[in-house]
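Appendix C reproduces, verbatim, an entry submitted by the partner laboratory led by Prof. M.T., so that reviewers can inspect both the input and the predicted structure.
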Amino acid sequence: MRFEKGPKLGAYENVWHSDVTWRACPSLGSVLQAIEVPPVGGDTLFADMGAAYDGLSDSLKARIEDLRAVHDWIDTFGLGMDPATATPYGPTSRPWNTR
């Protein structure tokens, strides 16, 4: 699959996200290799969501334990595809805490 920016597809990757969580079997992680880095901008940040969860209070962990997360890419990357091509890729619902 290749995504090219255009009038219907902008820079959606420039917000907090985790790669391909919408797949039925998402990847374990992401790898980034910078071939050429601009002198300003182009920053990439990583967040440890396991550590974020560990920092929650026990009462908040209990409140959210049975919640599910819906992962959908149609309103972002899917905008650049025709519906027949985009449909097999989401949305996906799974327990949010899959540790």
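The radius of gyration is 16 Å. Additional entries are available on request from the coordinating office.
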